[in-house]
Amino acid sequence: MKVRLFLKKKIAILLILLTVNSFLNILFVKGFEWKDSTLGAHSKFPRTFSNLSKGNFMNLTYNVKSGGDIDLHILSEAEYTKFNAGQSFTAHVTRDNSLQGNVLFEIPSDGTWVVLIDNTDSNTAITYDLTVDILLVNPYFWIQVVIIIVVVSAIVASVVVVTVVLVKKRKKGKITNQNKPKV
């Protein structure tokens, strides 16, 4: 009885530790926030995020509180360089003439990405809020899930085998109260 209770406690602790560890590694959020920020007429506000990995996510929430609307772009560093030089550029996300919104963007390639609030075509300054959360996804998550399943299965199988062996021994009378193994 003590053996089973001991094993159940160990299994429960191991499962809790593995689960917490795995889910803490799935998602890590880096948050950035600009509240009541002002952007002048004919201005732009680029915010650069470096070392992002393919498969991570960028979640933006923006709200223009006063002034005109904005153009919001998410660009690779190379495309932002083109924008800055006045050349034709391609944004991965564009919200033209926008006052508010939410954008969930999956990073398509490793590198530096730019969130650009563009007020260059306006004669009016704006006040805005911007929140950018970078969601870092663990690339080894599914491997961890498989390892957890294998480990848990092995533990459960061990407990079942030990329990069956003890039950069989008890039924055969080999284990009595006097000669039970001490754990």
Report on the structure:
With 183 residues, the protein is of the alpha+beta class. It has two domains: 56 residues; 111 residues, Jelly Rolls (Sandwich), CATH 2.60.120. The radius of gyration is 28 Å and the shape is elongated.
**How many structural domains does the protein architecture include?**
2
The CATH topology of the largest domain is what?
Jelly Rolls
Distance between the termini: 10 Å
H and E string? HEEEEHEEEEH
Please list the strands of the largest sheet in the order they lie side by side. 1-8-3-6
Q: List low-pLDDT spans.
A: none
- Tally of DSSP helical segments: 3
**From the helix content, strand content and strand pairing, which structural class follows?**
alpha+beta
State the main characteristics.
single chain, 183 residues, alpha+beta, Jelly Rolls, four-stranded antiparallel β-sheet, 3 helices, 8 strands
Concise description?
With about 180 residues, the protein is of the alpha+beta class. The protein has 2 domains: about 55 residues; about 110 residues, Jelly Rolls. It is built from 3 helices and 8 strands; from the N terminus they run αββββαββββα.
Task: List strands and helices in order, with pairings.
Blueprint: H1 2-26, E1 27-39, E2 43-52, E3 57-66, E4 70-76, H2 77-84, E5 93-98, E6 100-106, E7 111-119, E8 126-137, H3 141-172
Antiparallel strand pairs: 1-8, 2-7, 3-6, 3-8, 4-5, 4-7
